[in-house]
Structures are given as C-alpha cells and as structure tokens.
Design goal:
With 110 residues, the protein is an all-alpha fold. It has one domain. 77% of the residues lie in helices and 0% in strands. It has helices spanning 2-20, 26-51, 55-70, 79-102. Helix 1 runs antiparallel to helix 2 (26-51) and helix 2 runs antiparallel to helix 3 (55-70). The radius of gyration is 15 Å and the shape is globular.
Length: 110
C-alpha cells in the first residue's frame, strides 16, 4: 500500500509540474523541459521516501522559489492569469491526491 500511495503522490505532483511548466519561457521549455520533468519526478520520488506524505511540500518549496525567475510574461499577456488559474488547480489536485492517497475518502467523510 505504501508504494502505491507514493506512486500516486509522484504521479499527481508530476502532472501538476507539467502544467506549471506551461508558464515557463518557451525557449526554456524547449531546451530543458524534458530534463526538468525528469529531475522533478526523481526529486518528488526521493522526497516521498524521505519525508512521507510531506515530501512533495519540500520539493514544491524550491519549485515555487524559482518560478518568478523562469516565467515569461512577455510571450503571452494571458500567462499571468494562467498562472493564477494553474495555482488554484494545482492546489485542488494536490488536496484531492492527498485525500485519495491517505484513504480518508473511503471512510465516508468526503
């Protein structure tokens, strides 16, 4: 069960990161997108093993610290609005993933 929970956390967080990459500069995504995804996935997996369900928070702390330096608002005027919508969506997905991963939903609470 623990491996399945960790895999769910890794998958959901990787999906959220792939959505976040859309607000990064197109050139940065083109040159380094695949490597960024691989590094993020590995970091999430390592942090899940090291810190359990709190692991993704450790990784996301560093991701959100780098976002302002990596986004390119000049490429599209809608990227700022997209970033806000993405932030809300990622929060909802992470919360839902946490609820599913911990089994709280199966208790009939939600």
């Amino acid at each position: 069960m623990r491996n399945k929970c960790h895999q769910v956390l890794v998958d959901w967080n990787t999906l959220a990161y792939s959505l976040l990459l859309r607000v990064y500069s197109g050139r940065l995504r083109e040159d380094f997108g695949a490597e960024m995804m691989d590094a993020f996935r590995q970091q999430i997996a390592d942090d899940c093993v090291r810190y359990g369900f709190r692991g993704p928070l450790h990784t996301w702390f560093y991701v959100f610290a780098e976002v302002p330096a990596c986004i390119s608002l000049s490429e599209s005027p809608w990227q700022f609005a997209g970033l806000a919508a993405l932030s809300i969506s990622v929060s909802i997905l992470m919360f839902w993933g946490l609820i599913e991963g911990t089994g709280v939903a199966s208790l009939g609470v939600m």
